Amino acid sequence: MNDTLKAFLLFTLKYLKPFKKSFFLGLFFALLASLLTGLGTSAIKPAFNIIFVQGRHEYFWLIPIGMVLLFGFIGLSSLLQAYYMKITTTGMVNLIRLTLFQKCLNLPYELLAKERTGQTVSRVINDTAQIEPVLAESFQILIKEGLTVLVLIGVAFYMRFDLTLLVLVTLPIIVYTSKHLGAKTRLARRQTQLATGELTHRLTEALRGIKELKLFPSQELVFNLFEKELKRAFRYAVKITKYREASKSIVDLMNGIGGALVISYGGYLIIKGSLDPGSFLSVLTAILLVYNPVRKLARAYTGLKEAQGAWSRIDEVLSLPEEKAEGKKLSPPQRGFELKNVSFRYDEALPLALCEVSTNIPARKMVALVGPSGSGKTTLIHLLIRFYQPTSGEIFLDGEDINNFNLREYRNLFGVVLQEPFLFNLSILDNLLLAKPTATFEEVVSACELARAHEFILKLPKGYHTVLGEEGINLSGGERQRLALARIFLRKPPIIILDEATSQLDALTEVAIESTLERLRGEATIIVIAHRLSTIIKADKIILLDRGKVVAEGTHDELLKAEKLYQNLYQSFMRQEV
Questions:
Q1: Three-state SS string across 409-439, please?
Q2: pLDDT class of 117 with cuts at 50, 70, 90
Q3: What is the mean pLDDT of the chain?
Q4: Alpha carbon distance 144, 292 (integer Å)
Q5: Percent of the chain having pLDDT more than 70?
Q6: Model-level pTM greater than 0.85?
Q7: Domains plus CATH for the chain?
Q8: Could you say which of 87, 235, 379, 556 is the most buried, measured as most Cβ atoms within 10 Å of its Cβ?
Q9: CA–CA separation, 375 vs 379, rounded Å?
Q10: 370 forms bridges with which residues in the sheet?
């Protein structure tokens, strides 16, 4: 057994453990069905010899009754075996999916950002779907048909040793063929999964960017990329079928050769008078009944090889290092953040997004990050939230390295509103309760009133129970921003980050919300990335960034007097608000 197959079987046993009761019940009924099949085969010889050779025709009526009872019990045993195995295998697949989904939630954001969404979805859904038929079908076949083969070969050996050996001559060819074609199938299956993941990514990407696509002069590029991956998936899917069916065809050929050998040699023995017809018929029946299970076993082995490709992709995710969650407990900031010589790059091939940044963000103050596009403002925010780790340098909160804190507790300090906030395909109420699951309905309404969202919510068909659609597609940009702000007002986190959070609001609504934020000054640390002049002027501190470096720090008046870059940005802000 190679290391990959051994690892796959250990992986399977790990997820089998919670379902061992249903598994052993399925195993019991599989064994019972196999023993009944063997019993029926071994009963042919005495029945044939007594009734037909000895002429005891009065017992002939027992044959049809016995057949009905025998096949009835075999059918019932097979039904119960399939039922309990389905409970086992479906439960295992669901547990694998839950484990994989939990793993994805616990992976560092940095890793998930590099992995394309479609590929991640493919691993959770498509790759586990490839394992399911193996567990549901191949697993059952390996157990039930394997036992059946052993019982029938045992019966055949007991009846006639030499006839049975003739059949076993073909088994090495079947085993070799199944192993060789199974390896080819596994490689083709892995390529199919890669292509399927790419298809999922291309489709997800196209639907998310459908507005832009409809405005582009040509959609052929995206269409051609999708078609290319579709053809690649088709090509490997055909290969899988070719290898799988070739394995079955060779098994069928070997079955024919084995059967021909048995009939030829058995007929010769009967003619010579060294074998009675009852014994020959019993052995022949047992041998012929062996071929169908062997055929199924070959197919199951090929399926097992296919599943190894899917398992290896799943194992790649399960083997990834998770975010370090443990750490010190913490309380709301007292002194604030301090950054010491912080540098960061998104990829080794890219230039530094931040370079030797040293600054501080005082607690319970409003700090504005300003600078040209691409200056590193959002990157700095990502580092504060611990979505990414600095390439070099350190970030402290109240004098403690932020990596020393319990990650979940640390991130719970933050409330973040982005320029394009994400809303789930849930009701408005459920979206808001994500921020504070214990909130009462009255608290939710109060937060929405502060965010100036209550009025438009009441106009929706089901009010707070209106389902938003994917990514809140049923709402305007300004309405989505107001709901995101409502989450902040509901939870009241000690650190609030606003990344162009009011860019899509009308002037009156923005003024009202800014007055609400003013009330939080002195209670929360507010970090804003804004192009609105009113927000910047009111900040207690402004950090000016350019090309990943801190160019200057100070109040609005101080920077306006001393910094040419800030003066240019200020003039730009003035023109936007005219």
A1: HHHCCEEEECCCCCCCCCEHHHHHHCCCCCC
A2: low
A3: 78
A4: 12
A5: 76
A6: no
A7: 3-318 (1.20.1560.10), 336-577 (3.40.50.300)
A8: 379
A9: 9
A10: 544
